[in-house]
Structure formats: structure tokens, C-alpha cells
Amino acid sequence: MASPFPRFLHPFAKPTRTDFIEVARGDGARIYDTAGNEYIDGMASLWYCAIGHGRAEMAAAISAQVSTIEAYSAFDPFTTKVAEELCERIASLSPIVDSRVFLCNSGSESVDSAMKLARLAHVQAGHPERTLIISRGRGYHGTNYGGTSAQGIPPNREGYGTLLADVVQVDPDDIEAMSLLMSQNADRLAAVITEPLQGAGGVFPPKEGYLQQLRKLCDQHGAYLIFDEVITGFGRLGTWFGAQYYGVTPDLLTFAKAVTSGYQPLGGVIMAPSVCAPLEADPAFLLRHGYTYSGHATACAAALCNLNIMEREGLLERAVHIGKQLEATLQSLASDGVIHHARGAVGVWAAAHQPGIDSFAVRDAMLKRGAITRAVSADTNSFCPPLVITDKELTTLLDIFAATTMEFVKQKN
What we know:
The chain is an alpha/beta fold. 38% of the residues lie in helices and 16% in strands. It has helices at 44-47, 56-69, 81-93, 107-124, 145-149, 175-184, 210-221, 242-246, 273-280, 297-312, 315-335, 359-368, 391-412, and strands at 23-27, 30-33, 38-41, 100-104, 132-136, 167-170, 189-194, 224-228, 252-255, 267-271, 341-345, 348-352, 371-372, 374-377, 380-383. A hairpin with a 4-residue loop joins strand 2 and strand 3 (38-41). Helix 2 (56-69) runs antiparallel to helix 10 (297-312), helix 3 runs parallel beside helix 10 (297-312) and helix 6 (175-184) runs parallel beside helix 7 (210-221). The longest helix is centred in the C-terminal third of the chain and has 22 residues, at 391-412. The protein starts with 22 loop residues before the first strand and ends with a helix. The relative contact order is 0.16.
């Protein structure tokens, strides 16, 4: 008997759902479905489309690369000019001096790669006992086995059996608990992984001084500090990377999403000399890690074009402007009691609702009015719009959110 459900098994969705919105096209900060409905994209799709949808310049760059060489293996002994050029470009934007760049295909792969590279660097440095990786509660680190093991969102870990050994979580805001755990395991610490600003777990900026103290603890205990910048990388905080915004430099930095604005799948890890040196010390050492599409030429061409657009159009500065409007409006709604509180930084914010308000119901009601937000938990909606969103579009998005939320508040009362 044929299944009544679509052949496409959707990610992060109920397998029994059938009433999906079929997206037909996009233009800037707007998308359109096959029924002719228009939506203001308040989430840059899934935190990634910084330059907006439907950019002809991106299509041309991708087409030009495909017509030259669409892709070729970057395994020994091959490379492509476009992959080399992109890594030079990313290294030049990076907060890490004299860095090297490993390329993969997604944020999940970048996290797993960073975890493997951290452990491997300790092995090559003569410390194979250093395997423990610590992550923070609320942290989202993708859905491959390494990232799932480092998840600080318990439901995302359930049902997958035994996860990666020697990966543990600690309270996300308690630096003393982190310090104690690191001290108790000082001889086997490999790395600590954290988002500079926790995104998919609910948009939680770090407490004042937390990241600085974490950097000191890693230095004290000989552990690598990994920043998961899959969301915060490439302009979202008004700087190329969140590390620059917070003034803390990690040893490894993962990226994906906005590096291509989603026009092609691409991710990677930026590595400091502290990580690279052990890997480079033995000329006979072979790095046995990588992916078929590591350094994919077309994805690299898309990234270079995307970065050119971001620089030319001043989208990092635009992120600051957008952030001021998001912050002012959401904080005003909190002051008026429409929402419980707002939290975020620069171009990414969240609205935490009053008790009894369902963020998924708010999301669905907003969709009917032509605006997109994301329910990142049962009581929180997030905003991460394309950096090309106009002031008028952003005002409309926030007006729809305010009106929708006020209706739910009135119904509750």
C-alpha cells in the first residue's frame, strides 16, 4: 500500500505533515509561494540568506564556474584556483592571525570537523589522552553525530542511541561550573565548543565577560576554544565574525550559512597556528579527514561573489542599522507587556512571550498575514532578516508580529 505522505521526508518536521507551504521564488527580503502569497522573510530562510533572494549576480557567478569546471576533488594531489582564492579571502577576514581554512559542505560538517581536528591536533602534539570536549547547555551544534553529541538542546539528542564518548555539557551561564569541570578533567581536556551568541537554542547572548573568562580557562588548561559561528559568521553581528564583535579569539572557528547566503551549500573551519602546527610538524602525516565536496568549485565561486556583494553594499553596517530597529521595537513591546522580554544582539533577536502564549501559534498566524518568524521554542520567536531588508519591510514585519501577539495576549486575558 502506497504511503499517503510526500516522498520528501522533511527535516525538523512531523513525518505525517502534508500541508507544507511550497516556495516558488524569492526577491530580496520577500518570498512567494505557488498559491501566489507573498511573505516578508524575517529569518533569512534559516539564518543564512544575508544578501537576499533571487540575486542575478549570484546566478551568473555560479553559471560561469559551472561552465568552466563545476567541481573537482580536492583530495591529494588536486586543487582549484577558486578554492584557494576563497580560503585566502576568508583567512583575511578572520579574527585568527595566520589561519588556515578547511572546507566542507554544511554547518553540521564544520562542527564535526572542528571536533575531530581539535582531538587530532592533541594526538599529533603527543597528548592522545586529551579527548574531552565540553559544550554548553542550550547550544545548537548541528545534527551530525559529533554535533548531536555536543547538543545542549536535550530533545535533539533523544532517540539516536549511544552518542560520541567524552562529550559533556555544562550550565550555559555558570562560568564557575565550567571552571570546576575543566579543573577536574585538566589532563584530558581537548576543547570547549560554544556559539558566541547562542542562536537556534533561543538567541541568548553571553553574559558580560563570559567568553573572555572562557578564553582564559582554555589557555590555563591547554584546551582549544572552538567558536561555532555558523549563525554569527559573515556579518550578522555587524562584524565578519562574532569573535570580533565580542573581542575574543578562538583556536577554531566553524562557519557555513551566510558564507554563500545559501546560494550553494558550503561550510568550513578556520584554524589557528595552535591547531595547525601539530598537524604540520610531521611531513609524513596524512590528514585522513575530508568530504567528497570539500573545496567544491561552484560553492567557492558562490561564496566569493556573496562576499563581494556584502562588502560592496555595506551589509555589515546595514546589520547594525537593522539591529537598532529590531531592538527598539522588541524592547518597546516588552516595556508595554506585550511580550515578556527581548534578547539578542545587532542583527539577530528573539521575543520571549508572556506565559501561555504559544510561539508556534504566533508563527502560523503571522504566516497568514504574510510575515515569517521562527518559533525556536514553545515560548520564543526569533528574527534574523536578510541584511538587504528595507526599513519599510522591517517595520511591516514587526508591526505584524506586534499585532498578532497582542491578539493572543487579549485572548489569554
